[in-house]
Write a structure and sequence with these properties.
416 residues, Aspartate Aminotransferase, domain 2, disordered C terminus
């Protein structure tokens, strides 16, 4: 009898788990660990959304099975959001499915459209599920180096030429997790042009679209003809601080949406109806709460970039998302991201996500999440400073001491 099942054998050890185990052990011993590792929003869900959940849950007729495709009111709300935000028209009957968070939607979409022998193009580094959702479905991954959107685009042609059989789908994710990079609409135009030429479906992950600090990021569905081959996965988790509620969406190509809906019809009955009603209220209601949360993330980003820079670790300022993607400080680069992350949590009590968990091309970086308040972020920077200094890194003084004024020589008294 085999000790491991086929799909489990295809999954590598979960890199983040080593950091999580160390974190749990330290906290059990009383250590104050500042957790910048997991992208788990710490902000509260806006009150009007919670109130709608409670109000609906009190009704006696909402506690049965829901619909695996999602209630019509929520699908209409998502369609209205796409129309307002992107100028994209969606048919809520054929082009939208409500999912149990974007992660479940993406994983079941991979199950629906891929099979053993298929090849899928995935950026590297990227969110782990972008690869492993397809690996669990039995497909093979053509990993494409993507330290920037431009690099990803430039490598796509070679990836197709060297893939046997030809790829059936490709993944894009902007604002990117983990790199926090953003793209213009022209990037998506090139992706759609390329994908149509090679007859490849496109799966776009847009989970961080409302956490931006400059121009609002576009949707791939804004490109003319995109719905012929593309589907986009979005989420309520980050936009409305509803991560635990597990509400997301897939929208776009009718054939892909139908395949996802068919798979889901065998696997689940949809999210709890009051949760879906509250999610519709979030999309249809006032968006001041989204603006406020965006500004909180902006302030945290600025605090992190400024305080970590003074501590001796330069953190590139992210243009969007709730993450920063930082190169490992020079003395630790050769050891790799996992070893650096473990040392950082053990010696500085600061948890970060090792870049190797996002693919081999992420190993020179770590991801830091903006999920602690500014005071805690600045405390993390002080801890990092001590860690770097203890390991021989020369760090500039916090404040350059002002030069002392030279004392005037005593004047001789003049008689008279």
């Amino acid at each position: 009898m085999r000790l491991e099942f086929h799909k489990i054998r295809r999954l590598p050890p979960y890199v983040f788990e080593q950091v999580n185990v160390t974190k749990a052990g330290l906290r059990a011993g009383g250590a104050d660990v500042i957790d910048l590792g997991m992208g788990n929003p710490d902000l509260p869900t806006p009150p009007h959304i919670v109130e709608k959940l409670c109000e609906t849950a009190r009704k006696p007729d909402v506690h049965g099975y829901s619909a695996s495709r999602g209630i019509m009111g929520l699908r209409r709300a998502l369609s209205a959001y796409y129309d307002r935000r992107f100028g994209v028209k969606l048919d809520p009957n054929k082009e939208v499915v409500v999912t149990l968070g974007s992660k479940e939607g993406f994983a079941n979409l991979a199950q629906a459209i891929s099979a053993p022998g298929d090849t899928v193009i995935v950026p590297n580094p990227s969110y782990p599920l972008h690869s492993f959702g397809f690996i669990m479905a039995g497909a093979s991954i053509r990993s494409v180096q993507a330290h920037s959107p431009e690099e990803y685009l430039s490598n796509l042609g070679r990836a197709v030429r060297h893939s046997i059989p030809a790829p059936t789908a490709m993944v894009v994710c902007y604002p990117a997790n983990p790199t926090a990079q953003v793209v213009e609409l022209d990037f998506y135009k090139e992706v759609i042009k390329f994908a149509k030429k090679h007859e490849i479906f496109v799966l776009s992950d847009l989970a961080y679209t409302e956490i931006y600090f400059d121009k609002p990021p576009p949707s791939i569905l804004q490109v003319e003809g995109a719905k012929d081959i593309a589907v986009e996965v979005t989420s309520m988790s980050k936009t409305y601080a509803m991560a635990g509620w597990r509400v997301g969406f897939a929208a776009g190509n009718e054939r892909l949406i139908a395949a996802l809906a068919r798979v889901k019809s065998y696997l689940d009955y949809g999210a709890f109806t009051p949760v879906q009603v509250a999610a519709a209220a979030a999309l249809n209601g006032p968006q001041d709460c989204v603006d406020e949360m965006r500004e909180i993330y902006r302030s945290r980003r600025d605090a992190m970039v400024e305080s970590f820079s003074r501590a001796g670790w330069e953190i590139p300022s992210p243009g969007a998302s709730m993450f920063a993607w930082a190169p490992i400080p020079e003395p630790f680069r050769e050891a790799g991201s996992l070893e650096f992350s473990l040392r950082l949590i053990k010696e500085a009590h600061v948890a970060v996500a090792p870049g190797a968990g996002f693919g081999e091309h992420g190993d020179g970086h770590v991801r830091l999440a903006l999920v602690e308040n500014e005071q805690r972020i600045r405390q993390a920077a002080r801890n990092v400073r001590k860690f770097l200094e203890a390991n021989g890194v020369k760090v500039k003084p916090e404040k350059e001491p002002k030069p002392k004024a030279e004392a005037e020589p005593p004047r001789k008294k003049v008689a008279g």
